């Protein structure tokens, strides 16, 4: 069994259970594909019920073990800081693994990996700040107080689009607080999480504190979310999968934290610098080939500048370079999943048949060098309306619909007319108008004259079908700890 994921090409990667790489009980391995070439490049193990049970038992044992339970808060914080250093030392390797797995731009993955250590360091600081409170209860001969404890074993299920970045926001505080975890990474991007497991071992975490069970949703995901030994689930992924996981977890009365899909509105008022707003809209929706949960895929533009805005948006979109994710000049790489190509083509055709105008894009790029990869041109569907099918469903690709509006009232009712509530953006010079938007929009995040700017220091999460629970900031300490009430008579 490989003990390192350094050179993956053609290799088989095991599960990471109880501090070591191990073969799956079923002996089953699955191919992982490179989206830029469409070629298989390594195999990952598929964990079944038995493997997941081994991982959960190991995490439970580690949770109660003196090595972890009796470690001082300061020492736990030091371990998380040591992990931050190791992530920094290995940033380039981790970035390469993610780019090969999910097709996102190497420079973006590099930026994410270089930012991760700061995030680990921030959450490491929570290790010695988990404190309870004393409660006045009208009894002078009683002391009534709450202590806060770690929750226990946390099951984490991650998507492929930014595996380590999305994992860190919950893994780092969970470890700092003293929980143990079982992680199931996406079957479309497994390598970087297994590489992180190696760093966790090197940092000196006791065996079993972190376990990684790879495999698809139907086998490994189901095994993990039906397991009675998990105290809380953290899920990042699509809304449909979130519903399924919450259903499974409910049978064991296990709570969940859900970061789900989005169909975020991006609003442009007539008083803006059009070029600046166009750049904001382009980066807000086309970054990572539209494969971000916060993609501002519904763009509402004030009617008086609508024509000029659409022309500028189309011109800017035509200048986007679609290409190999490891090349410097590339703005947009391939889609991570082959099935996404057909899905996007279907939605664009449906949008056109429902009356939208394909102003640019809408197909696979023509260059021979891109023929093998899963590339799709950035697409603007102008003259759209909010009830068209592509404006309702999350496409998770580089497609934006543009709709004119005549009044704030009309705009806010369209912007809120969606099942989702993850993020939103507004471009205007008028602060009153921006704040009216911020107070009336049903979304967990509001960006004013910017988009996609996120920080691990602030709590964030979705409204409506975009999920529940908060990540980031100090809220996260309550999410992964519990109060225990103690009463002393004296
Ligand atoms: P997905 O829902 O298909 O898969 C996510 C994870 O769930 C994967 O690990 C998958 O194997 C697992 N899974 C699938 N079926 C399962 C089951 N029955 N039981 C347990 N686990 C199961 O999502 P994806 O395609 O990997 O990611 C894209 C989606 O994630 C988009 O909808 C995007 O908006 C969302 N997302 C949300 C956020 C956020 O912070 N809100 C961030 C990133 C991505």
Automatic annotation (TrEMBL):
Active-site residues from the entry: 259
Family of this protein: Belongs to the aldehyde dehydrogenase family.
Domain Aldehyde dehydrogenase: 25-486
InterPro entries documented for this protein: Ald_DH/histidinol_DH, Ald_DH_C, Ald_DH_CS_CYS, Ald_DH_CS_GLU, Ald_DH_N, Aldehyde_DH_dom
PROSITE patterns: ALDEHYDE_DEHYDR_CYS, ALDEHYDE_DEHYDR_GLU
Any one GO molecular function term: oxidoreductase activity, acting on the aldehyde or oxo group of donors, NAD or NADP as acceptor
Gene3D superfamilies for the chain: Aldehyde Dehydrogenase, Chain A, domain 1, Aldehyde Dehydrogenase, Chain A, domain 2
Protein name: Carnitine dehydratase
Keywords, alphabetical: Oxidoreductase
SUPFAM superfamilies in alphabetical order: ALDH-like (SSF53720)
Pfam families (UniProt xref): Aldedh (PF00171)
């Amino acid at each position: 069994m490989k003990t390192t994921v350094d050179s993956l090409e053609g290799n088989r990667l095991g599960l990471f259970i109880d501090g070591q790489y191990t073969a799956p009980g079923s002996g089953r391995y699955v191919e992982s594909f490179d989206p830029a070439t469409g070629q298989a490049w390594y195999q990952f193990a598929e964990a079944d019920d038995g493997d997941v049970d081994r991982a959960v038992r190991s995490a439970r044992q580690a949770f109660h073990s003196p090595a972890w339970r009796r470690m001082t808060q300061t020492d736990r914080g030091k371990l998380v800081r040591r992990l931050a250093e190791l992530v920094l030392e290995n940033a380039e390797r981790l970035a390469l693994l993610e780019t090969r797995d999910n097709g996102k731009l190497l420079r973006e993955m590099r930026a994410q990996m270089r930012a991760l250590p700061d995030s680990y360091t921030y959450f490491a600081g929570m290790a010695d700040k988990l404190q309870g409170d004393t409660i006045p209860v009208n009894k002078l001969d009683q002391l009534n107080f709450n202590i806060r404890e770690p929750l226990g074993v946390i099951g984490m299920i991650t998507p492929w689009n930014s595996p380590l970045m999305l994992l860190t926001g919950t893994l780092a505080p969970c470890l700092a607080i003293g929980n143990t975890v079982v992680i199931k990474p996406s079957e479309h991007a497994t390598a970087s999480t297994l590489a992180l497991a190696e760093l966790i071992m090197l940092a000196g975490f006791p065996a079993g504190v972190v376990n990684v069970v790879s495999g698809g949703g139907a086998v490994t995901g189901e095994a993990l979310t039906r397991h009675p030994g998990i105290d809380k689930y953290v899920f990042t992924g699509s809304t449909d999968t979130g519903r399924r996981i919450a259903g499974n977890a409910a049978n064991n009365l296990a709570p969940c934290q859900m970061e789900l899909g989005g169909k975020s509105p991006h609003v442009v008022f007539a008083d803006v610098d059009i070029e600046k707003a166009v750049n904001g809209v382009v980066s807000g929706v086309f970054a990572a080939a539209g494969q971000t949960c916060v993609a501002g895929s519904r763009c509402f533009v004030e009617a008086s500048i609508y024509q000029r805005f659409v022309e500028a948006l189309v011109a800017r979109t035509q200048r986007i370079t679609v290409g190999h994710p490891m090349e410097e000049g590339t703005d947009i790489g391939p889609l991570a999943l082959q099935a996404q190509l057909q899905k996007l083509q279907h939605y664009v055709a449906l949008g056109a048949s429902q009356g939208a105008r394909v102003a640019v894009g809408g197909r696979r790029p023509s260059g021979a060098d891109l023929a093998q990869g899963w590339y799709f041109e950035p697409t603007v569907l102008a003259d759209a309306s909010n009830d068209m099918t592509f404006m309702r469903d999350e496409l998770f690709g580089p497609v934006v619909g543009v709709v004119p509006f005549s009044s704030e009232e009309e705009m806010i009712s369209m912007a809120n007319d969606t099942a989702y509530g993850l993020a939103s953006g507004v471009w205007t010079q008028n602060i009153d108008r921006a704040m009216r938007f911020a107070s009336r929009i049903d979304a967990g995040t509001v960006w004013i004259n910017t988009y996609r700017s996120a920080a691990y220091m602030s709590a964030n999460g979705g409204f409506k079908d975009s999920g529940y629970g908060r990540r980031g900031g100090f809220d996260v300490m309550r999410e992964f700890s519990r109060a225990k009430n103690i009463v002393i008579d004296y």
